[in-house]
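Example complex used in Figure S2.
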Amino acid sequence: MADEVVLLDFWPSMFGMRVRIALAEKGIEYEYKEEDLRNKSPLLLEMNPIHKKIPVLIHNGKPVCESLIIVQYIDEVWNDRSPLLPTDPYQRAHARFWADYVDKKVYEVSRKIWTTKGEEKEAGKKEFFEIFKTLEGELGDKPYFGGETFGFVDLSLIPFYSWFHAIETFGEFNMEAECPKIVAWAKRCLQIETVAKTLPDQKKVYEFVGQMRKRFGLE
Amino acid sequence: MAEEVLVFGAWGSPFSRRVEMALKLKGIEYKYIEEDLTNKSPSLLKYNPVHKKIPVLVHNGKPVAESLVILEYIDETWKDHPILPKDPYERANARFWAKFIDEKCLSAIFKACWGACWGEEKEHEKAEIEHEKAVKEVSELLQFLENELKEKRYFGGETVGLLDIAANTIGYWLGVFEEASGVELLTREKFPKLCNWANEFVCVTAIKENLPPRDKLIAYFRNRFGAGNASK
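Predicted assembly (451 residues):
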């Protein structure tokens, strides 16, 4: 029986990008459905009644929600190729810990920078640099967070690269100057075909964020 | 080679108790180290420099932090008495609800019991409305869990699983918060299945042996957060 895979998503979502990269890495064919988050489809509300959020993966009619949970699901179902997590339990725990760190910290602090101004924004920036310093520490001299190959933690963080231009412009700083190791890591990831094909253009994201800021009354 | 398993925890924390419950279920021997959270040990800071929090599991010298990450590590390392199902869809489901409990339920429960913005609410009326809102939110969240339980004995089916362990905050600590604050949230008339589950849950040996004493816990929360949000 042919697998039916549908992805409910929103093009600038870093969380959606994680799932798109995972599906591409595994070579899975799927139907992409773009959601208008100001007018959510009945399908989205039916498939994710609890959070009403994207991404949602619908596999043979059954929904899976929360991006990192979806990525692990994809890895476990299509387990015959391109593993997304290591096999050793300790390395898996290590990967889960850092992906969880990215989840808990990076989105909120990035959002703080482009949705606030003045003192609040400066506080956000300070926190942002601390978080990325911690991430640079974890990366160390490795080519990827996963070691020699692109892995779970890389996948969880790389989508934010498409937002760097927007964040640094509205944050009034230079990402490459502040976090050189992270930018170098990101450029390395972008050499990977699935990542390069998945991530939207930084300029497009910047324009999108600009429109959001206008709506929030920040411009 | 002899295995060395250490657990850094705090007696009243549902998060560190989760780790102990899982180890007990699998019959794994470990050494427990009680942390004074107002005076964290150099060991804790060494093993969890990023968050500086308990619980931390240290297995043969290698640390694992974050309770849900630790539970999955325990399940993958010690294969007896599995706490996650084999089917990927059911595994995703268990993970989803565990995350839901941790990210949504606990903060909502705290707000309903003690008010996250309690200190800022000067006007009694405003505080009343905030409290009602918070109670309503908890009710909606608990309803999701009630529906998820269906006719199962445990969230994990016939035996206690990862989601049951993660739901220890609902199965035991919620009752403690209710008594400490005087706010009723998990009522039998609204949530019969969840109440039944909680009763079964705390009777399971591996769980029962790892629950902190109720009176001590109630006194601790009353002392720390005050008498609570209950309408007088």
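Strands of chain B lie at 5-9, 31-34, 56-59, 62-65. Residues 117-122 of chain B have pLDDT under 50 and may be disordered.
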